[in-house]
Fold this protein.
Amino acid sequence: MRTGILGVGKYLPESVLTNADLERMVDTTDEWITTRTGIKERRIAAQTEATSDMAVKAARMALDRAGLSPSDIDLIIVATITPDMFFPSTACVVQDKLGAHGTPAFDIAVACSGYIYGLAIADQFIKGGLYRNALVIAAEKLSSVTDWEDRSTCVLFGDGAGAAVLGPVEEGGILGVNLGADGSKGELLQLPAGGSRMPASIKTVENKLHTIKMEGNVLFKHAVKMMSDAAKGVTEPLGLKADDIDIIIPHQANVRILNAVAKKMGVDPDEKVYLNISKYGNMSAASSAVALTEAVEEGRISKGTKVLMDAFGGGLTWGALVIEWS
Ligand code: UT7
């Protein structure tokens, strides 16, 4: 028995922030953002819309498509670095909103690799026989932790949520997983204040330490290497070559990173790498979740398709997973 994905869902906030809008906010151009990142626009959640609100909408869609109701779910995992609050966890908020009372629920803070970590955790619980069906949601409101005066970061991020319902399948399913982390490089991408190391104060607010700090060009090189290595680390033990993979669903941080990873893997990015970064920017964990959902919606994934998911992000963390669609 293997674990399969029984249904996928997504939610993107209505409000669209274009590169032209950003040209009016910071010293940037559509040309710079497009050529350096591949992003044209991103979605921004309403002020009243928290991460759990987006997560619930994505979850409901995934449940509908799986033909299951919240009472059928035995486990809820939410991957997020922008929880509604420190605690209770966003997963508990989501559990309540779905009416899945009693179901175990917890968050994981794995930044951009969170969806793959979440799928991997759920896979273990299902294969181990403790639970039958799990709901894995990746949801982020990065606009709430973005410094809107810092052109080096504010052009990159967006808000959104993606979800999957997992359960046992007789054919296909998750074939392999490869997760990793390197905490020694954590300072390259962080949100410094608000935790026990640097509790919130007037000074932390004045110094904008509650927003994302990123050393983009250093991260770029790590991203290419770590995503390539992560992919290799899951495909090689399965005896899979690049040709055996039908589609790659990567974390969408930068189209240039993805082209470089594809080149290292020896695949044609136009043919095999799924991209939606132009519409949504980098939504951290939600990026690969929404990308998977849209690839299914567009018919790029159907029964028998071998999908490689591949992500890299804050921590630093990375994760890759191969699933044969059921
Ligand atoms: O989600 C997972 C973790 N994140 C990543 O993996 C992100 C990885 N990094 C990247 O995607 C890229 O490094 C960025 C898109 C963040 C930046 O692209 P880059 O080609 O590495 O640019 P850079 O940081 O080296 O900056 C080049 C120039 C600088 O000007 P000078 O020093 O050459 O005069 C920046 O000040 O571009 C300037 N710049 C901008 N110019 C116009 C930085 N941001 C902007 C901007 N508009 N928005």
Summary: The chain has a mean pLDDT of 98. The domain at 2-170 is CATH 3.40.47.10 (Peroxisomal Thiolase; Chain A, domain 1).
